[in-house]
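User: Structure please.
Assistant: Input sequence and predicted structure:
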Amino acid sequence: MKLPALWIVAAFAAGVLLAAFALLSPGWWAAAAGVSLLASLFLLRQARVAAAWGAALCAWIALGALAAAGESRAVPEHHVTRLLPSASLDTTQPLRWRGQLRSDPVQMPWGMRYEIALDEVESAAGPRPASGGLRLSYFSGGERAELLPPLRAGDRVEALARARPPRNFRNPGANDARALLAQQGVHLTGSLRSVELLRKLAPVPVSYSQRMARARGNLLQRLNRLYASQPEHAAILRAMLLGDFSFVDRETSEIFQKTAVYHVLVISGMHVVAISVFVWWMARRMRFPLELTVALILLLLFTFVSIVEDRPPIARALWMAAVTLGAQLWYRRSAVLNSLAVAAGILLAIRPSSLFDSSFQLSFVAAGLIGGVALPLMDRTTAPFRNALSHLQDLTRDAAQTPRAAQLRLDLRGVAQWLGPRLPQGLRSHAHGMVASPAVAAIWLWEGVLISAVVQLGMVPLMAHYFHRVTPAGPVANLPAGALSGLIVPVGFLSLGGAAIFEWLGRVLAWCENLLVTALVAVVSAVSEWSFGAYRIPGPPRWLLILFYVSLGILAVLLVNHGSKRRLLLPGFALGAAIALCATHPLAPQLRAGALEVTVLDVGQGDSIFAAFPDGRTLLVDGGGTYGASRIGGARVGLDVGEQAVSNYLWQRGLRRIDAVALTHAHNDHLDGLKAVLENFAVSELWYGREVSSRAFQELRDLARARGAKLKQLHRGDHFEWGGVTGMVLWPEDVSATPVARNDDSLVLRLEHGTTTFLLTGDVEKPVEQELVTRGDPLRADFLKVAHHGSRTSSTSSLLEAAAPQVAVASFGEDNPFGYPHREVVARLCAQRVRFLRTDRDGAVSAISDGQSLAVETYAEAAGLPGREPTPCPGDAAIAAPQGESRPAKAAPPGKRIRKPRPAQRTKVAN
């Protein structure tokens, strides 16, 4: 069997995947592996080789499932991820966390960041063992950071802080931020309130990995000194040379992502290749024995990986290099796909769950595209001509060439014989090289274009799935960016090494490095400005990803095994179709046919509401955002809610366009997220109420105009009809310009679908609520979006009596500093016997109306998440419906009922 390692690792990976669906104990998988292995041996003795291979692959599948099941059960009992669900620790209170620093503290624009490998935690009940990773941040504002204790990796510290597990947005389509941080060894996050709450404990032995972390810290400090005059370049070099993305801002990341060259910022196989080739060349020049050369390369590579931290791309390249160099000791050549499979197998054996990591998939798919598609295509096309161009004067090599390659040698030799006498005497001996060099350069250029095109096209499904981005300009940007990064990496390391010997030498090399980085940023920025260079798109459905992977695997195996062109047609066509479908996403959005759906999204401390109408039109009210300052020292603090929460939800629904986006009022926690929405989707109209002269509001309007959205100012009395739904604007009445946004300037919208009604109140407070009630406006609503996140200044008794809602939903952040929802608001809702839902506990809340009845569902219910106890009602704890119960607390009016919703259907809506 050709490529045995590829088949074995594919079977092992299939077992890891199988274990995610078949939740069996490790004993069952071990028994299955044993039975399959015995069957393989028996069949082999019977000389039934093919059947024996099949049974052996079944054994590898069982071993993969066994490894995955074992990993899931290998978490220690005192790990924080097990202590917190068991209620052994009360994270609502500050605790004393103790452990060793995993890396040197990182100086951020907003303060300091520490990563601690925990070994103990102390609560009121006393100290107890604990393991896991804690990331602490100290927001100094540049004032008292110097009072923090000087610390290095390996130092044992104690921090008094309130730490929590990272929280995911509870919306369909949300990224699993908790799992992403867990891959980095971070299981808890917290903030230091004061410098006095962190102290250094007695010294303890420092491990090898911690010494490497100190070396990395020293290199980072040296890099900062060398490039102090160019902090933007220093941030890029910290990422490219040492894998530290702490200072790469969102704008820089965006231009690299738009042009599909973000990989040059990531430490990858290019670093391994550069180190290996350089050391191999030097060692052979110095006539080192082969064994010593291989050992020296591997030692340097392992040291390099230890310093920059182990990441899937470089780990993959490291193990591939080890396999390739090991084959050299036996004077053998290793197949690229076999080496790639061995590297993947080692990483999966160490941590089976890495199969589900985006970085693992992106790294190995990219390498597989090169080894399984690009290189075989080069062997079929340019390799014969590339080989024919070497030793052009040697006539004895002609017979070993293909007919076309031999003819090329004859033609070029004829040109060289004509050119030679016409050259100066000193150049005549180089005539053959002068003739062959342009052809060699053309072939290299073509092969570079081919590799870039294959990788960029083949990565379309994964880029659409994980990043919702398609980059047609990728192949164009990758050639110059790849060439420049190939120079930036060695020059960067030379500058760091030179500075360690002579400071002036490091600065000279740093000057050259700055020129290279300037050129890289200029090229990437120029390509990112192309209007057709990149666009955002919903992720492909699961069946399309399966089609892509299966087609790619079959095509790669056929190419490597020199399959005929006829046999390549079907998998090639299937692969091309999968890529085209992922790039264009012609699928209809996932909307409920003929229904009105209003979904209050979980955006933390803010508001964002998505409405889908019976005719397929869509409306987004607010986009969430960051309360207070979103930047400190020029660096963004916190998440981009519009990108990571709202946009991800809309993409999960299969949307590429939105008919209207409405801004209730220009406060950051409603406005900020709309910027990402306008950039990521085709928005037809931007609605707003009172105009505000703030910079953020003006920038939003300018962005909407630039993206082709029509601006529409709404005020009291406006209405619209969409798909049988009547929308009314109840507030504001005064829409004249004002310098500062106020809660009472919020848009208040009422939607009526048949006999069901929805009232969306923005952040209006008591004066506006009283005005609406006094005027006798139609406030009756089955569904109420609670005003101002449950603040005591809103949701007055008079409004609740006039609205008489069945369901009320409040949107706010978990454990927010404002105390939302206020107990008085909860008491008023309870007095009205309203079912009260909240995004911090229930996640996204959807209310679906068919015009006659209302159905309510929550993300927490659908995902089976363990929720906290419902908000208690003062004096009547039984009023609040337990999570998961769909009945309304208040009896429904005649002809209306709350029932379970119908399953989502795809409706053919132009999008």
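Confidence is low (pLDDT under 50) at residues 875-911.
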